[in-house]
Structure to design on (156 residues):
């Protein structure tokens, strides 16, 4: 695993900026928070629910009543795991401030603290990750839930 610093690499920043959101609507990412016992608590989220506003800040909009939202409010630690054929990226974050609650969603500001990348080792030969996590059918951007999520992420 290679440490990449404390900011999102340009390719990941572009992916999380929602500039090309329609092409990513069928992809899922893993977000891991810490539960009350300090154990990892994974959830899947989509590119629809994430918005990088700059290389140090990611906004996340998830169900306000979810365990992940509760974990972020209480402990603040999160790791976003982005799996792509080229590499796997781990983004360690910290929730800052109070979440914004809108229509059953909680929007968190996640400050990027550390970024690491993992790629296939030459000793693994031709073995590679061939895709990330995908799902279907992808949500439509004109769906009321998708519109609420996008509005929540973009509010100032």
């Amino acid at each position: 695993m290679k440490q990449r610093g404390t900011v999102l690499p340009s390719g990941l920043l572009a992916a999380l900026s929602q500039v090309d959101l329609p092409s990513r609507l069928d992809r899922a990412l893993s977000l891991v928070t810490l539960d009350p016992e300090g154990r990892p608590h994974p959830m899947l989220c989509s590119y629809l629910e994430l918005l990088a506003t700059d290389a140090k800040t990611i906004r996340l909009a998830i169900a306000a009543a979810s365990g992940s939202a509760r974990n972020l409010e209480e402990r603040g630690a999160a790791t976003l795991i982005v799996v792509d054929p080229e590499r796997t990226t781990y983004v360690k974050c910290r929730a800052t401030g109070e979440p914004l609650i809108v229509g059953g969603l909680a929007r968190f500001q996640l400050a990027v603290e550390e970024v690491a990348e993992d790629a296939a080792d030459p000793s693994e030969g031709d073995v590679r990750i061939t895709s990330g996590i995908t799902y279907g059918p992808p949500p439509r951007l004109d769906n009321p839930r998708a519109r609420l999520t996008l509005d929540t992420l973009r509010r100032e």
About this structure: DSSP finds three helices and nine strands in the chain. Helices lie at 10-16, 67-74, 144-154. The longest strand covers residues 88-102.
